[in-house]
Specification:
The chain is an alpha+beta fold. The protein has helices at residues 49-67, 75-95, 143-149, 155-159, 199-202, 207-214, 220-231, 328-357; strands at residues 2-5, 9-13, 22-25, 37-44, 103-104, 106-112, 115-121, 125-130, 133-137, 181-185, 193-197, 239-250, 407-410, 413-418, 421-425, 440-445, 448-453, 456-461, 466-472, 474-475, 482-487, 490-495, 500-503, 511-516, 528-533. The strands form six sheets. Strands 1, 2, 8, 9, 11 and 12 form a six-stranded antiparallel β-sheet that branches. Strands 3, 4, 5, 6, 7 and 10 form a six-stranded antiparallel β-sheet that branches. Strands 16-17-18-19 form a four-stranded antiparallel β-sheet, with no helix packed on it. A hairpin with a 2-residue loop joins strand 6 and strand 7 (115-121). The radius of gyration is 25 Å and the shape is elongated. The termini are far apart. This is PPM-type phosphatase domain-containing protein.
Length: 537
C-alpha cells in the first residue's frame, strides 16, 4: 500500500499558561507531504521541565525512526522506539537531577505501507475521521476515564471531577517505565482525516464540534483556523494539534502486516455539549513508578539541538487520590476493574511480543531490529572493534542458556552479548537492573567501566548506572581517580565527575585547547572551549 497526503497542518499555542510546554513534530513550518510521522506531546512538570520533556520525546522518536527504518511501524517497533526515548530521559536526568518528575504525554501518527499506526500515552488524543464522522479515536489514560468506563461517574460528573487532571501514563524514563498503546489501521481511505491534539484543545473542541468542522466543504486551512479560533482566548492550557488528510491510497496490504480493526463505540452525547469531557485546569499529576513492566532500553546520544528553557509557574500540589468515605464502594469497584485490566494488558503485551519473536519474552528482554553500527576508528588501549574483551575469561555456557557465553569483567560481574549489544549480568546471568545495551563494554577499573555507544565512549559504574555519558572519541580506564580521554582532537584527564582534572603535557609555552566537560549542559548545549597558556616550570 502507498499513501500520499495533503499538506499537513500543525499549530501550537500558549493558551492560558505562562509558557508553552507542548511540542509538535515536525514544526508547523517544516511539515511536508513527504513526512511519514507526526507527533504532538504535552509536557508535565512546570519550572520549564515540561517543555524539555516533550522536546526530548519528539526528538528521541524521530532519531530512532531515522536510524532504524522499518517498512511498517508495528507495536513492537514502536515500543522499542519508546525504550530509546526513555533512555534519553535517563541520560538527561543523570546530569539534571532537578528535572526529576518531568514527564510528557504522546500522540503519534506513523504512515507506512500497511496503512497508519496510531500510538499514544496519556490524555492527548488521536482522531480518525471519515466523511465527517469520528470512526475511531484513542482512549485517554486518565483516572476520570477509568471511572467513566467503570460506570462510577457520569460524563456530567467527569467535567467537574476534582481528579480530572490525573493521568495514569506518561513518559518519564526507565525508572518509571510505561507501555505505549498502538493501533495499526489497515483501513485507510482517500479523504480520511487524522487529528492529533493535546488536552488543551479538548477544553473547547468536543467530538461533535470536530465532526462539524471537518465535515464542511471549507479548505483545510480554513478548518484549521476554525479549530484555532475555538480555543484562542478560551483555554486555561496550552493547545496544540496536527491535522493530516489522506490524499491517495494505492496497492494492497501484505498478509504479514494485517491487523485487526479497532473497536470503537461513540460516547453518548451530553445535552448542549460544547466542550470535551476531560478539561484540565491545573498542572497534571503524573503516575507513580511501576517496576519491571517494560524491556530494557538503549542509551542514545543526545541530539545537538539545545532545548529551550523558559520560566513557568510551579506545578500545583497533587490532587488527593483518596475519595471520601461515601465513595468507598465505588473505589473498590474501580480497583477490581483496574486489576483485571492490568492483568489483561500484561498478558496481551507478552502475547504480542511472542507473535514477533516466536517466543514470549520475559520482563528483562525485548525484541529489537538489528542495528548496524559503524566501526570506530579510535579505540581505548587493548580493544578491537566489534570483538569482546578477554574471551578467555568466559564462564560456562550453562550460566545463561541462550546467546553467547558471558565474559568476566571483575569479581562476579560479567558482560554478555545480545542481539541489541553488550549488557552487564551477574553470576546467575541476570541483567543488572540499571544497565543498558552498548556496542562495547570494557573491563572494570577503579569501580568504573568504559562503554561505547555509536562511536562515542563513556563510563558506567559496577551497577550499570551511567556516570559519564558517551561523548568521547576515546577513553582509557580510570586509575587513581582519573582517566585519559580524547574529544575533538584534544586529550586531557577527567575525574570521576566528568570534569577536567589535568591537561596532557605540552611543550613549554604552547597554547593548549582544553574542552571543559560541563555535567549540566553537556547533554543539550554546545561544548564550551576554554584556551589557556601553559605556565613554564
Amino acid at each position: 500500500m502507498k499513501l500520499t497526503i495533503h499538506p499537513p497542518l500543525g499549530y501550537s499555542f500558549q493558551g492560558g499558561r505562562s509558557n508553552n510546554e507542548d511540542t509538535i513534530f515536525p514544526q508547523a513550518d517544516d511539515a511536508t507531504q513527504q513526512q511519514p510521522w507526526f507527533m504532538v506531546c504535552d509536557g508535565v512538570g512546570g519550572a520549564a521541565r515540561g517543555e524539555i520533556a516533550s522536546h526530548i520525546a519528539v526528538e528521541g522518536f524521530n532519531d530512532y525512526f531515522v536510524r532504524n527504518p522499518e517498512p511498517v511501524a508495528t507495536p513492537v517497533y514502536l515500543q522499542t522506539a519508546l525504550d530509546h526515548v526513555q533512555a534519553r530521559f535517563d541520560d538527561y536526568l543523570a546530569w539534571h537531577p532537578e528535572g526529576n518528575g518531568m514527564a510528557t504525554t504522546l500522540t503519534m501518527l506513523y504512515l507506512h505501507e500497511a496503512g497508519a499506526s496510531v500510538a499514544h500515552i496519556g490524555d492527548s488524543r488521536v482522531y480518525h475521521l471519515r466523511d465527517g464522522k469520528v470512526v475511531w479515536r484513542t482512549e485517554d489514560h486518565s483516572l476520570v476515564n477509568q471511572l467513566l468506563k467503570a460506570g462510577v461517574i457520569s460524563r456530567e460528573e467527569a467535567r467537574e471531577h476534582p481528579q480530572r487532571n490525573v493521568i495514569e501514563r506518561a513518559i518519564q524514563g526507565n525508572t518509571k517505565p510505561v507501555k505505549i498503546d498502538v493501533q495499526v489501521l489497515n483501513d485507510v481511505r482517500p479523504g480520511d482525516y487524522f487529528f492529533l491534539c493535546t488536552d488543551g484543545v479538548l477544553e473547547r473542541v468536543s467530538d461533535e464540534l470536530l465532526e462539524n468542522v471537518l465535515g464542511t466543504a471549507a479548505s483545510n486551512e480554513q478548518k484549521k483556523q476554525t479549530l484555532i479560533d475555538c480555543c484562542t482566548g478560551k483555554t486555561k492550557d496550552n493547545f496544540s494539534a496536527y491535522l493530516v488528510q489522506i490524499e491517495t491510497v494505492s496497492g494492497e496490504v501484505s498478509d504479514e502486516y494485517r491487523f485487526s480493526a479497532p473497536v470503537y463505540a461513540h460516547p453518548e452525547t451530553v445535552a448542549d455539549e460544547t466542550v470535551a469531557v476531560v478539561a484540565v485546569d491545573s498542572v497534571r499529576t503524573t503516575p507513580a513508578p511501576v517496576e519491571n513492566k517494560v524491556p530494557p532500553r538503549i542509551i542514545p546520544e543526545p541530539r545537538p539541538n539545545p532545548v529551550p528553557k523558559r520560566s513557568v509557574e510551579q506545578p500545583a500540589p497533587k490532587d488527593n487520590l483518596f475519595p471520601d468515605s461515601d465513595s468507598l464502594p465505588r473505589l473498590l469497584t474501580v480497583a477490581l476493574i483496574a486489576a483485571v485490566l492490568t492483568l489483561g494488558g500484561v498478558m496481551t503485551y507478552k502475547w504480542a511480543k511472542s507473535d514477533e519473536t516466536g517466543q514470549v519474552q520475559g520482563a528483562g528482554t525485548a525484541h529489537k531490529p538489528t542495528r548496524q553500527n559503524p566501526k570506530i576508528d579510535v579505540l581505548p588501549p587493548n580493544t578491537k572493534p566489534d570483538q569482546p574483551l578477554d574471551d578467555t575469561e568466559s564462564v560456562s555456557q550453562a550460566v545463561i542458556s541462550a546467546g553467547k557465553a558471558p565474559v568476566l569483567i571483575t569479581g562476579k560481574l560479567y558482560k554478555k552479548q545480545t542481539e541489541d549489544g553488550w549488557i552487564l549480568v551477574d553470576e546467575k546471568g541476570e541483567k543488572k537492573r540499571k544497565t543498558k545495551s552498548y556496542d562495547e563494554i570494557g573491563k572494570a577499573s577503579d569501580d568504573f567501566i568504559t562503554v561505547r555507544k555509536d562511536n562515542k565512549w563513556g563510563y558506567i559504574n559496577l551497577d550499570g548506572q551511567i556516570k559519564i555519558r558517551c561523548q568521547f572519541d576515546k577513553a582509557a580506564n580510570f586509575a587513581e581517580g582519573r582517566a585519559l580521554v580524547s574529544k575533538d582532537g584534544q586529550e586531557y584527564y577527567i575525574n570521576k565527575s566528568g570534569q577536567v582534572a589535568q591537561p596532557v603535557e605540552s611543550t613549554p609555552g604552547q597554547q593548549t585547547a582544553v574542552l571543559k566537560i560541563d555535567p549540566i549542559a553537556a547533554s543539550f548545549q554546545p561544548t564550551k572551549i576554554f584556551i589557556f597558556n601553559k605556565i613554564r616550570s
